[in-house]
Amino acid sequence: MNPKIDIVTIPVGNLDLSTRFYKEVFDLPEDKISSGEDHVAFFLEGEMSLVLYERSGFAQMTQQHEDNLNTCSVIFSHTAKDIKEVNFILSRAGKAGGTVTKEGNADDWGYYTGLFKDIDGYTWEVMTWQETDNIYTIEVNREYRYKPEILFKAWTSPQVLKELFGLTEVEMDVRVGGKFRLATNKVEAFPGMHTESGEYQVIEQNKRIEKSWIYEGPMSPDKTLNSEIILEFIETQPNVTKVVLQESSSSLSDVDKRNQARDKWTYALVEMNALLG
Fold first, then answer.
1. How many domains does the chain have?
2. Half-sphere exposure (CA, 13 Å, Cβ side) for 259?
């Protein structure tokens, strides 16, 4: 006999909310979902199914009291195709009402992993094998009393970014596949020309920007530094927008470098508020 697991069934407090959560996080098509009166089944890859069951029905089926049901003793693991997808799923989970308990990061076994809890408290591990150098991610965020379109316009405005970063040269072609180049020679602690350039990879109007980010200059004289930058513009309530900025790079390999990156981007988010005001 070759034992295998075909179906995993978990109790949930609100079947409609939990169904909506998993559809949003994993972008499951309708033909992969089957609904019953007290349960919803998701047909996953590898002939495996995840079934969400209302708590009362689950307790009756398993002949136990509802108070004995808990979520803390199991971890579900999902293998993503790459690091970008790991970060994307974690971001979706947070926006869909879950809680990201561990941002994406490299572990000691060659995997890039992150953790989130769904709205019932079940823990999911999202992971991928790293074929290249370890990738580390930092995240900062700030809320503004502006609509998303105002913040999006600011982060795609050459004039605003020129003031924000004290730039002497700005070139921006804001479209998917478009290039940008930002340069300044006004960093007193590190004299010389600092250049940051890259390509816009994803642009969702007023919602999301993804771009490569390449630094060349005195702060890293021996090699260029390559990063991926993600900016999200999330309207948390009318006329209030949270800007979430992530930087992922193998160059953020130690705590000091990650702290420096957090400080840099936190300062940028604070200064953006001052520029808009």
1. 2
2. 3
Say whether both 112 and 152 belong to one domain. Answer: no
User: Residue 109, class by beta-carbon neighbours within 10 Å (0-12 exposed, 13-18 middle, 19+ buried)?
Assistant: exposed
pLDDT tens readout for residues 163-219: 999 999 999 999 999 999 999 998 888 899 999 999 999 999 999 999 999 999 998
In a domain, 1, yes or no: no
pLDDT band (50, 70, 90) for residue 269: very high
What are the CA-CA distances from residue 66 to residues 8, 10, 51, 160 (Å)? 18, 13, 18, 56
The CA dihedral of 147, 151, 157, 159, to the nearest 10 degrees, is 100
**pLDDT tops 90 at residue 52:** yes
Q: Give the other-Cβ count within 10 Å of 146's Cβ.
A: 21
pTM, whole model, 2 decimals? Answer: 0.55
- Final residue in a domain of this structure, among 129, 149, 164: 129
Q: How many CA atoms lie within 13 A of 207 on its CB side?
A: 7
pLDDT for 130-161, tens place per residue?
755 578 899 999 999 999 999 999 999 999 99
Asked if 113 and 102 touch (Cβ cutoff 8 Å), the reply is: yes
Are 213 and 196 in contact, with CB atoms under 8 Å apart? yes
The CATH number assigned to the domain holding 208 equals: 3.30.530.20
User: DSSP characters for 132-173?
Assistant: SS--EEEEEEEEESS-HHHHHHHHT-HHHHHHHHT-SEEEE-
Please indicate, yes or no, if residue 13 is contained in any of the structural domains: yes
Residues 112 and 172 in one domain: no
Q: To the nearest 5 percent, what fractions of the chain are helix, strand and coil?
A: 30, 40, 30
Instruction: Confirm whether 2 is domain-assigned.
Output: no
pLDDT of 222: 72
Mean pLDDT of 83-99: 93
Beta bridge partner(s), residue 39: 53
